[in-house]
Specification:
This protein is about 20% helix and about 30% strand. With about 170 residues, it is of the alpha+beta class. It has two domains: about 5-85, 2-Layer Sandwich (Nucleotidyltransferase, domain 5); about 95-165, no CATH class. About 15% of the residues are buried.
């Protein structure tokens, strides 16, 4: 499993649960093959995050990259994953308001100077297919000295991904 991208995501079982008896699982699966490697049931009346420690104990994920959605953007969860694996790209959203605000502010300032700062590595891709044009902009910074608690979070870099899609004349 070395050098693989693994994904942690929660799933709700359909057909055997109702609003009163909902069954949730957290899965670890291979992004490349889609094969589920491990699965852990979420304890009743708790959130997906409660199943994360048990899921990480099931299998050795050293040398892998583990991707999770913003639902897991909590210091405790990130530390658990980083302790078990090597790298962990994770989304930042409103559940960590201060962190999100600092990161947005940084990339807004970078955008204002056309991403010309030395600490930024940026690339653009253009995709023209099926009657649409999609442009994707990706910028990375490894210089996080300005970000409070970056070390505490275990952050090594920040990545901004922006995209524009044109379908006919509609953006």
């Amino acid at each position: 499993m070395r050098d693989q991208l693994l994904v942690i995501d929660g799933e709700r079982l359909r057909g055997i649960s109702d609003n009163e008896h909902i069954k949730h699982f957290v899965e670890l699966f291979s992004a490349e093959s889609g094969i589920i490697i491990a699965q852990e049931r979420v304890p009743d009346k708790s959130c997906e995050r409660a199943a994360l420690p048990a899921l990480l104990k099931v299998i050795d994920v050293k040398g892998t990259i583990i991707s999770m959605d913003a639902h897991y953007t909590y210091m405790q969860d990130l530390r658990s994953v980083l302790k078990a694996g090597d790298d962990c790209p994770v989304g930042i959203k409103g559940n960590q308001g201060n962190l999100e605000a600092e990161v947005k502010k940084f990339f807004e300032q970078a955008n204002a100077i056309d991403y010309e700062a030395d600490e930024l590595e940026c690339s653009t891709t253009l995709d023209k297919r099926h009657g649409r044009i999609e442009t994707q902009y990706v910028c990375v910074t490894h210089d996080l000295d300005w970000l409070p608690k970056a070390e505490e979070w275990g952050l090594k870099s920040l990545i901004e991904v922006r995209s524009e899609r044109f379908i006919k004349d509609k953006k």
